[in-house]
Design brief:
single chain; alpha/beta; Metallo-beta-lactamase, Chain A; 7-stranded mixed beta sheet; 6-stranded mixed beta sheet; 11 helices; globular; binds zinc ion
Length: 300
């Protein structure tokens, strides 16, 4: 099976659920909100911070102090629910004997500056105490550098280091400013969709030549049928089915991009009654490469 974890790189699913929920599967298994960890030589890049992702980070064996980069695809709550928690946790985790130059970079689309401001407001008293009487170094502002990007139609480079390069491009996700990422380490090159509706942006071209795509997926007919039966607001049903990618379209994107491996994540629904084979069967008619259905804490 093609793998993303090789050489100095390890890619771990922290949360595989789409939407603001944590779903119980069987026994003690859960699906937490969307999040990925990409580790290179002990330094971790976290992509999105859905509900439960901080807990999952520790379960995956990482200390928050190892997180040096956070990439946010967009500011829907299921992608930023624990961003403030992660930043605060990472700031505090190295406080004893920490390198005063250590720093966390948060990259996100339009809206991330509001999240930054809100986080600082919510944590104002704690930050004042930690920086003041508790003399924590570096200061919160010196520790966390926030970078807001207007989603670009043509890819832009966010990080360009030998061991880690990150590019971003606008993806279409309703009215929400949203990014797809292409993350390349010295070992692997992976395109990450974030949330997007298929066919109205350039993500497939952006992903061409990557080793793999990690793509969101929705079972569109199933979701529409269930929600209409529940009397859900039509505007929300339309958002779910129009602004996310139906399984056959995910296969078409992977085929067009020419990747050997497709990882399905941000599953909608993450119903415990839907097994991996069902997702694979939905995608298979339009893609003949390797398909992996993400589970929490899975090493890809
Ligand atoms: Zn989402
Ligand atoms: Zn979204």
């Amino acid at each position: 099976m093609p793998a993303l974890s090789k050489g100095r790189t390890k890619v771990v699913v922290l949360g595989s659920h789409g939407g603001q929920q944590i779903t119980r599967l069987t026994g003690s298994h859960l699906r937490c909100g969307t999040s990925l960890a990409i580790e290179v030589d002990g330094e971790v890049t976290v992509v999105d911070c859905g509900c439960g992702s901080v807990h999952r980070l520790v379960e995956a064996g990482y200390d928050a102090d190892q997180v040096r980069t956070v990439l946010i695809t967009h500011c829907h709550a299921d992608h930023v629910a624990e961003l403030g928690s992660l930043v605060g946790f990472a700031w505090s985790s190295g406080r004893n004997g920490a390198d005063p130059d250590r720093r966390l970079d948060v990259h996100g689309p339009t809206g991330i500056a509001d999240y930054e401001a809100g986080t600082k407001l919510a944590l104002r008293r704690s930050i004042a105490d930690q920086e003041g009487p508790l003399a924590q170094v570096p200061t919160f502002d010196a520790f966390a550098a926030w970078h807001e990007i207007v989603p670009p139609r043509e890819p832009v480079t966010l990080i360009d280091r030998p061991e880690l390069s990150v590019r971003a491009v606008r993806v279409q996700h309703g009215a929400m400013p949203s990014l797809g990422f292409r993350v390349a380490t010295s070992d692997v090159d992976v395109a990450i969709s974030g949330d997007r509706g298929a066919g109205r942006d350039g993500f497939a071209a952006f992903a061409a030549g990557a080793d793999a795509i990690v793509h969101e997926v929705i079972d569109r007919p199933l979701v529409r049928g269930v929600l209409e039966g529940q009397g859900t607001a039509p505007s929300f049903i339309d958002h779910l089915v129009d602004d996310h990618t139906d399984a056959p379209d995910v296969g078409r994107v992977a085929t067009e991009a020419g990747v050997a491996l497709l990882v399905l994540y941000h599953l909608i629904p993450a119903n415990p009654g839907i097994d991996d084979q069902r997702w694979i069967d939905l995608v298979r008619p339009t893609y003949d490469g390797e398909i992996v259905v993400a589970h929490d804490l899975q090493v890809l």
